[in-house]
Amino acid sequence: MKIKIKKVREISFKENTIFFYTNKDAKKIYLRKDELDYISKEVKKGTEIIKLYDYKQYKFIINPKEENNQNQKIENLRLIGDKIQSELKEESSVLISLLKEEKKKGLAIAEGLALANYTFTQHKTDPKLNKLKEILLSNISVGEIKELQNIVDSVYLTRDLVNQPFSHLTAADLATAAQKVGRKNGVKVEVFNKKKIERLKMGGLLAVNKGSLDDPTFTIMEWNPKNAKNKQPIVLVGKGIVYDTGGLSLKPTANSMDLMKIDMGGAGTVIGAINAISSNKLPVHVIALAPATDNRPSGNAYAPGDVINMHDGTTVEVLNTDAEGRMILADALSYAKKYKPELVIDFATLTGAAVAAIGHYGLVSMHKDSGKDHAELKKSGDEMHERLAEFPFWEDYDELIKSDIADIKNLGGPYGGAITAGKFLAYFTDYPWIHIDMPGVYSKAKYGYRGKGATGMGVRLVYNFLKNRY
């Protein structure tokens, strides 16, 4: 269930209310002397969230700790929103009362509160939904509230897609989700079927699909407003493996397949990002490409030792069919050349090596010919707390993907697995390019306002990056 974020013009103080300790007007109107005395004592202790409960009404007085790092300061406020949400699950609404100078801080609390309120209960026969339905804000413009609402909705969309099991989200279903965004927001969406993919000789996507009973899809989403500020498009590419068994190189370890519904997290991220960009009408020409299939070990599945002819004519020796994401992404990256892009960013749940390196706390990045672009993206990552851990991309690693019988091979060896996967993808690019490996797409334990399960990480990063850029 979506949460609504609304502007309130007159403050009655009859609702559950959040306000900052520095808001003297609220304290004067809203609090008794005994409450003020109690709050003063708590402030001296350094308490960040001072909670009062009176006549079935909550009052939260926020006293955030001092923080020199502005990005961390805003993230702490989002986390305060998350903590307050846990107190309001049985309440229907909450008012955030703000002075004009508290606008940015208030929006951060609202963002954390709204994102924390997400639940995925579609497959429960008796779902326990959070009762919180609306967040009311004072001294915030309608435009700013609408922007935040669209961003939150877009993160919810991505989380829904990533949380959805393969039994309810095939490659065709993923394409349908993109088409719904297109119809709602005026995004041009084209979906290539298997025959079209065959005509385009997308050998990587077709090879991975050989073990599936379902046809692959290749979805193109294009947001190109008349006031776009970029002459060449930004292209987003998302890995859409809707379920991954590893193929004939069957995943060998316990519990290694039960979360493989999330292997389309890159495609889910770019669909959510396009939704945020188009619903807020950013003046930027953006194209998203989402190749999609599942990866299964049928009798006709592609096999270790095979040589695959890719979309751009490159030959690839397959050493492991579980290195399938890079196979479908390579076709999409070579297809992206036709757009003569300003920049290409791909998003993929690509390697266990990235997860092992940084856990679910961020995103791993590599780049080619895009130092300034990567610095801008990293800055946005710090602002959104969707941080990039940049891995080295030294030429030495190129040697590890050379093949004895083909142009390159799809596995680099036991070391630097995230980097050699990136090197494989780089082979198919001739434009400024950033690769994002996504360990942070899912968390098995609650991770602040990102919750437990799909986090939606990447959507806010892309939106903030493009908004800052244009």
Strand content: 15-25%
Number of structural units classed as domains: 2
Described by strand count, sense and barrel closure, the largest sheet is: 9 strands, mixed
Distance between the termini: 32 Å
Low-confidence stretches: none
**Beta strand count:** 20
Q: What number is the mean pLDDT?
A: 97
Helix content: 25-40%
| Topology-level CATH name of the largest domain | Aminopeptidase
The total count of helices amounts to 14
Task: Output the radius of gyration.
Answer: 24 Å
Structural class: alpha/beta
Level-2 CATH architecture of the largest domain: 3-Layer(aba) Sandwich
Shape: elongated
The H-level CATH homologous superfamily of the largest domain, spelled out, is Zn peptidases
Q: What is the CATH class designation of the largest domain?
A: Alpha Beta
Summarize, please.
With 470 residues, the protein is α/β, with parallel strands linked by helices.
Keywords, please?
alpha/beta; Leucine Aminopeptidase, subunit E, domain 1; Aminopeptidase; nine-stranded mixed beta sheet; 14 helices; 36% helix
What is the topology?
Elements: E1 4-7, E2 17-20, H1 24-30, H2 33-45, E3 49-53, E4 58-62, H3 70-87, E5 93-97, H4 103-116, E6 134-137, H5 142-163, H6 171-185, E7 188-192, H7 194-199, H8 203-209, E8 217-223, E9 234-238, E10 240-244, H9 265-279, E11 286-295, E12 307-309, E13 315-317, H10 325-335, E14 343-348, H11 352-358, E15 363-368, H12 371-384, E16 388-390, E17 408-409, H13 417-426, E18 433-437, E19 442-443, E20 453-454, H14 459-469
Parallel strand pairs: 1-6, 2-4, 2-5, 5-6, 9-11, 9-14, 10-11, 13-17, 14-18, 15-16
Antiparallel strand pairs: 3-4, 7-8, 8-11, 12-13, 15-18, 19-20
Helix pairs in contact: 3-4, 4-5, 5-9, 6-9, 8-10, 9-14, 10-13, 12-14
